Structure to design on (104 residues):
């Protein structure tokens, strides 16, 4: 993914050795972030037992970002998996949406 390699611009909210968090370029809510592991991992369906810690860290980072952004009344996390699940990019990512009452 070009954003992970810093080949295209993005509004990066967090980055460490394992993941990067940035604003979705086509937001579906007032706040819409993508939390993406740097490890190449096509989808949740492709994950293995050795990925359990990383998967947990992605979800925990979603919680931390929600707290940092003041989403005290709630938020939504989504992982689209495969074409039938709506996945458009062949890299696992967690959507974090909030900042307003979600009606969808």
């Amino acid at each position: 993914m070009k954003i992970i390699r810093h080949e295209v611009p993005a509004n990066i909210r967090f980055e460490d050795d394992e993941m990067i968090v940035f604003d979705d370029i086509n937001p579906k809510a007032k706040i819409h972030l993508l939390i993406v592991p740097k490890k190449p991992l096509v989808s949740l369906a492709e994950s293995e037992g050795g990925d359990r810690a990383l998967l947990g860290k992605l979800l925990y980072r979603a919680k931390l970002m929600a707290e940092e952004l003041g989403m005290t009344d709630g938020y939504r996390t989504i992982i689209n998996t495969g074409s039938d699940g709506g996945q458009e990019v062949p890299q696992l990512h967690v959507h974090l949406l909030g900042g307003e009452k979600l009606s969808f």
User: Anything to note?
Assistant: The chain has a mean pLDDT of 96. The radius of gyration is 13 Å.
